Amino acid sequence: MRLLSVNVANAKGIIHMGEHIETGIFKRPVEGPVRVRTLNLEGDQQADLRVHGGPNKAVYVYSQSNIEFWRSALQREDLGPGTFGENLTVDELSDNEVGIGDEIEIGTARFLVTQPRLPCFKLGIALGDPEFPEVFQRSGRNGFYLRVLREGALAAGDAIQMKPAPVESRMTIAEFARIANAPAPTPEQLHRILRLDALPQPWKDRLAARLERHSE
Q1: What pTM was computed for the model?
Q2: DSSP notation for the chain
């Protein structure tokens, strides 16, 4: 497993539907080592910190296989590293392979997988299709966020080492997304999710509320 590209961008203002918004979604590949900080990569910014960024969304990862899928599905050869707003483009680590609570080491930095990405309207801006975020979400090709466990540096070409979460409590990104987005997940499924130690509290609060409605 290898890191194919490191992608960053400063937040910038654009006009969308007559309104000024700030976004950092237009990531571009950079060469050479990049410092990994607790809240982001050096040279990268998240614009709306109410829904982006923070320790549990410090770095966003997307696989090359997902990008190739979208190239074919959308018939667009212009899609490449950074197109989907990801910081790290990787050659493997698909949503069906990576689990919440897995630890990943790249270069001298170490990370914890925390959650899938839920796209906002800005992904539609990046792709030039306002309906794409919903298509993206339904596809199950979300990619995933990382918490920084150890600051360091990484660069394109670095090997990726992964330490999976304990098998008895492990849930892949794809499985989590299917359950969390299902119209009526079962109590057993919700209990499984709530036992994920690495899952951020806002997710647990949201899903605990759904579980409570089951008992009403």
Answers
A1: 0.93
A2: -BEEEEEE---EEEEETTEEEEE----EEE-S-EEE-SSSBTT---S-TTTS-SGGGSEEEEEHHHHHHHHHHHT-TT--TTTTS-SEEESS--TTT-BTT-EEEETTEEEEEEEE----HHHHHHHT-TTHHHHHHHHT---EEEEEEE-EEE-TT-BEEEEPPPGGG--BHHHHHHHHTSSS--HHHHHHHHT-TTS-HHHHHHHHHHHHHHT-
pLDDT at 214 over 90: no
Per residue in 116-175, pLDDT (tens digit) is 998 888 999 999 999 999 999 989 899 999 999 999 999 999 999 999 998 888 999 999
Reading the block at residue 151, the tokens are 């600051």
Pairing of strands 88-90, 59-63: parallel
Task: List, in order of start, the domains of the chain with CATH numbers.
Answer: 3-165 (2.40.33.20)
